[in-house]
Specification:
The protein is an alpha/beta fold and about 325 residues long. The protein folds into two domains: about 1-65, no CATH class; about 70-320, Carbonic Anhydrase II (Roll). It contains seven helices and 18 strands. It has helices spanning about 1-25, 50-55, 60-65, 170-175, 195-200, 205, 260-270, and strands at about 40, 45, 70, 75-80, 85-90, 95-100, 105-110, 115-120, 125-135, 145-150, 155-165, 180-190, 215-220, 235-240, 250-255, 260, 300, 320. β8 (about 115-120) and β9 (about 125-135) form a beta hairpin. It starts with a helix and ends in an 8-residue tail after the last strand.
Length: about 325
């Protein structure tokens, strides 16, 4: 009798595997083998819980001990008075770049001929801005990747930089120590909008990237406008929040949230992660769940445990340097 039961279980298990295999449509490349939602166009696509299982090169997504995002417990942030202020270095005060619907994110990539660099804070090297990436939810109050005291925000904007002092491009930097720096802003829905985000998310601009792979070139954007006039920050060592989840990121989380309007948030939720010929699937809820902190330390340039803390003085402002390009001798 036990042998018959065991044989029946094997048959049922084989049938279940066959069913899953029939529903799973292999992608053309590993880059297509992950999603934030596990069902897309009626087929199974590996969601965050499976990222580390579908490709051995992504195993850090499953076994890593310094993964991001995290839930930030402000009572665990150690005040570090020796953290210098952040410094932005520009060749031009205004930059252009390409706004892109990648199918997973709203992505802005600045023109590489007019680099935007960040240094200071916990960073020992100059880091070049590669991408501005948006994460947002299908409803207000949910959408950020990082949480603060177990509470998410409606969205999160991440400025992804690579270490240009040590590495030649973001691909090389992402695989190596001290490779990446990500500056992150929480987003609230309000009656006004941050000037930089207002340019990205106004109706005329955002409707040009309604579907996957659509792009729109923008000019005269000021990255400086993203930063609040006064702000504090916290920092920790973590990972990329998309496969392959390399643990090479210095995260800098700004403590002052930015605003966008309810209309702009609605426009984001109308963006499709699909192409025009496919069924509409909103890009919203494009965030990875929070990961365990384990024994990592959190540092801040202000004491986050003190209520009513004030950020005043030069240490709590963005320092901006406009670099004049060297003229070629004639």
């Amino acid at each position: 009798m036990q042998a018959l039961i065991y044989r029946a279980l094997l048959i049922l298990q084989a049938g279940a595997v066959t069913l899953v295999a029939a529903q799973f449509s292999p992608a053309k490349s590993y880059e297509d083998w992950w999603a934030y939602k596990e069902s897309l166009h009626g087929t199974f696509v590996p969601g965050p819980a499976f990222w580390g299982l579908v490709n051995t090169a992504w195993n850090l997504c499953t076994i890593g001990k310094r993964q991001s995002p995290i839930d930030i417990n402000t009572s665990q942030i150690v005040f570090d008075p020796f953290l210098p202020p952040l410094r932005l270095s520009l060749v031009k005060k205004k930059v252009g770049g390409t706004l892109h619907n990648t199918g997973r994110h709203v992505s802005f990539r600045p023109d590489p001929h007019h680099p935007v660099n960040i240094s200071g804070g916990p960073l020992l090297y100059n880091h070049r801005l590669e991408e501005v990436r948006l994460h947002f939810g299908s409803e207000d109050g949910v959408g950020s990747e990082h949480f603060v005291n177990k509470k998410p925000s409606s969205a999160e904007v991440q400025l992804i930089h690579f270490n240009e002092d040590l590495y030649s491009n973001i691909s090389e930097a992402s695989r190596n120590p001290n490779g990446l720096a990500v500056i992150s802003f929480f987003i609230n829905v309000a009656n006004n909008s941050n000037p930089f985000l207002n340019r990205l998310l106004n109706r005329e601009t955002i409707t040009r990237i309604s579907f996957k792979n659509e792009t729109n070139f923008l000019q005269d954007l000021s990255v400086e406008d993203l930063y609040p006039e006064n702000f504090g920050f916290l920092t920790y060592q973590g990972s990329m929040t998309v496969p392959p989840c390399y643990e090479t990121v210095t995260w800098i989380i700004i403590d002052r949230p930015l605003n966008i309007t309810s209309m702009q948030m609605h426009s984001l939720r109308l963006l499709s992660q699909s192409q025009p010929t496919q069924i509409f699937h909103s890009m919203s809820d494009n965030f990875r769940p929070v990961q365990p902190l384990f024994h990592r330390g959190l540092r801040g340039n202000i004491d986050f445990r003190k209520p009513g803390r004030k950020c005043k003085g030069a240490n709590f402002k963005l320092h901006v340097d406009i670099q004049t390009p060297l003229k070629t001798a004639t």
